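Case study 2.
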Amino acid sequence: MRVSASACHIDVKTAFRWRHRLLELPATLKAQVLEGIVEMDETAFRYSEKGNKTLSRPGRKRGSLANKAGRSKEDWVPVLTARDRGKHTIESVLKDTSFIQIDRELQGKIEPDSILCSDGLRSYQKIANQYGLVHKQLNLSAKKRVIERVFHIQNVNAYHSRLKNWMRRFKGVATKYLENYLGWYRFLDTAENPNEKNLFKIQQQLVGT
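Prediction:
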């Protein structure tokens, strides 16, 4: 932010506001429909009120342990990723991983003749039943990671790994801006020859400037 602000001769706070104005567009650029073999899994990011003047709970030092063991709702924010083999991707920040939350994000976005690959989360079973999908359910605890040599969630897991590595440069992202950063990386990961200049060109075309 400081380098960008210096290059543009603006205040750091202004540069930060500009960043998120530019990121509002890629945050909305998600696949409209998924088809074929669809992999689905969730990852999680630490809940953060970074940058807020008032906090809903006591602040936490960077690198400190979560308040509760496991991925509690107080400490972690779930992110759903659904991705087909054509690299079309839908991502959403969820309140929780219930069927209601996941169904709300995926309604009308998966072709009915698709095959859903997921772990054993019960919500995914309900999604498959609700949409009439063939469901290939992996038993990861039993190290059953591939079914019939074709059905797995390795592409989504690899995507999550790349996403987490990319996000480390920001040293923590405020939860209220998480969708923006997800959209930013999603564009960089799926666009041909991706870079920020291409992103800016797309924004100009869409707003007609």
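The chain has a mean pLDDT of 85.
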